[in-house]
């Protein structure tokens, strides 16, 4: 009895199935995402302060591409990567919401007042330029403006201020090798305590900014 030979066919590859991403690639993408989020914040503040003509949509697009790449790959990441990706994504979404809201208000000719000292500085700068055409801005937008009355009891705020000041130093090309978290905390504690003692215990706002291309750290009373 003769048997017919049947041809075997290979299974067609599943379309849209991307190759697995290595742990190293994931870490590199998360590093880029973190760097771009910091860059996004700086460039948006520069845009709102008049230092840039266009918002950093290219940086925003790069971050969104990474989020799309890892949006459904949670199972391929280890615990620390998932945790880091989640934190970075939440930070980006928060910044994007804030900055887009400010852009809408900018287009409408208003400024969101609850942004504190940074918004007041931007608004003052805008008015100065409108009043004196062609006069360059004297101040660059603040990196950070935050209430801090007792650095010893507010370690998270101290860390925020330290990171913002270090970032300002790096962007301005100033050295950071002598800057340590412990020494910075002691300096900040003394600066805030002295101001509160002189002014009767009023709330203090710490501002990190760039002025004339140099990083500046100021403590002042909140109005």
Description:
The chain is mainly α and 223 residues long. It has two domains: 23-110; 138-221, no CATH class. It has six helices and three strands. It has helices spanning 23-48, 57-70, 79-108, 117-131, 155-172, 181-198, and strands spanning 142-147, 204-211, 214-221. Strands 1-2-3 form a three-stranded antiparallel sheet, sandwiched between helices. Helix 1 (23-48) runs antiparallel to helix 2 (57-70), helix 1 packs parallel to helix 3 and helix 2 runs antiparallel to helix 3 (79-108). The longest helix has 30 residues, at 79-108. It starts with 22 loop residues before the first helix and ends with a strand. The model is unreliable at 6-17, 111-120 and 129-141 (pLDDT under 50).
Which secondary structure elements does this structure contain, and how are they paired or packed?
Elements: H1 23-48, H2 57-70, H3 79-108, H4 117-131, E1 142-147, H5 155-172, H6 181-198, E2 204-211, E3 214-221
Antiparallel strand pairs: 1-2, 2-3
Helix pairs in contact: 1-2, 1-3, 2-3
Query: What average pLDDT do the residues reach?
Result: 76
Q: What is the domain total for the residues?
A: 2
The helix-strand sequence is HHHHEHHEE
Classify the secondary structure makeup into a structural class: mainly alpha
- How much of the residues is beta strand, in percent? 5-15%
Number of strands: 3
Unreliable parts: 6-17, 111-120, 129-141
Biggest sheet architecture: 3 strands, antiparallel
């Amino acid at each position: 009895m003769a048997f017919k030979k049947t041809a075997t066919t290979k299974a067609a590859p599943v379309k849209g199935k991307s190759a697995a991403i290595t742990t190293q690639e994931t870490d590199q993408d998360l590093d880029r995402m973190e760097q771009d989020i910091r860059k996004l914040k700086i460039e948006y503040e520069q845009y709102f302060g008049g230092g840039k003509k266009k918002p950093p949509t290219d940086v925003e697009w790069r971050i969104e591409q990474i989020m799309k790449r890892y949006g459904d790959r949670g199972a391929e990441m280890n615990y620390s990567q998932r945790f880091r990706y989640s934190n970075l994504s939440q930070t980006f979404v928060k910044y994007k919401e804030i900055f887009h809201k400010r852009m809408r208000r900018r287009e409408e000719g208003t400024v969101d007042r609850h942004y504190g000292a940074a918004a007041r500085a931007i608004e003052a700068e805008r008015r100065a330029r409108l009043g004196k055409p062609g006069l360059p801005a004297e101040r660059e937008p603040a990196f950070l403006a935050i209430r801090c009355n007792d650095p010893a009891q507010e370690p998270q705020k101290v860390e925020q201020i330290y990171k913002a000041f270090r970032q300002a130093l790096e962007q301005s090309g100033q050295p950071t090798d002598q800057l340590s978290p412990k020494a910075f905390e002691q300096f900040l504690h003394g600066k805030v305590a002295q101001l509160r003692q002189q002014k009767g215990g009023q709330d203090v706002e710490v501002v990190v900014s760039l002025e004339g291309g140099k990083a500046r750290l100021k403590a002042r009373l909140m109005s």
